[in-house]
Write a structure and sequence with these properties.
This protein is mainly alpha-helical and 174 residues long. Helices cover 65% and strands 6% of the residues.
């Protein structure tokens, strides 16, 4: 896994979130889609909260707080292919679902800024991280620092596609 490529991809995806954030009207940003599901606001709250939590896992790996465990084959496949298996709806773990809430555009901007700041702090250390030290992910099992970074990329991209589905749903209802 090329860490620099993953970091460039994450930066590009985050830029797309920033563009989307300002391309949606304030009212629509908070509005639940006509067929249900999360609003733009809730997606931003979830994805950047989850990304910050993932960076905490990265930091634990960097601090030597991980365990020596194997990474599950399914997790390796997701990390290799760079996407969650298609056609499946994923349930957010309850402890994360309880953290999802509607936030305003300013809070979304702050989440993004916080994520970028924490990512910048971790970047220089990730390449040097011990690959055998891993921290558990709620669904994928144990991941090392580089795997967590790859997961962040995949997860950000997954929810960016969700924003596209929300846009489509709003257009279809008008």
């Amino acid at each position: 896994m090329n860490t620099n490529k993953v970091l460039q991809s994450v930066a590009k995806i985050v830029d797309a979130y920033k563009v989307k954030l300002f391309s949606v009207a304030d009212k629509e940003f908070m509005l639940t889609p006509p067929l249900g599901g999360w609003s733009y606001s809730e997606v931003y709250a979830h994805i950047f909260d989850a990304s910050l939590l993932s960076l905490l896992a990265v930091q634990k790996c960097l601090n030597g707080e991980g365990l020596i465990e194997k990474t599950h084959f399914g997790a390796k496949a997701i990390l290799f292919f760079g996407m969650l298996p298609p056609g499946k709806r994923y349930k957010v773990p309850k402890r994360l679902m309880d953290r999802v809430k509607k936030i305003n555009r300013n809070a979304a901007q702050q989440f993004i800024a916080d994520f970028e700041l924490q990512l910048d702090k971790a970047v220089s250390q990730i390449e040097k991280a011990n690959p055998t030290l891993k921290v558990p992910h709620p669904r994928l099992g144990f991941l090392n620092a580089k795997q967590w970074l790859r997961f962040i990329e995949i997860h950000l991209n997954h929810h960016l596609k969700q924003l596209g589905r929300i846009t489509h749903a709003h257009r279809m209802s008008n």
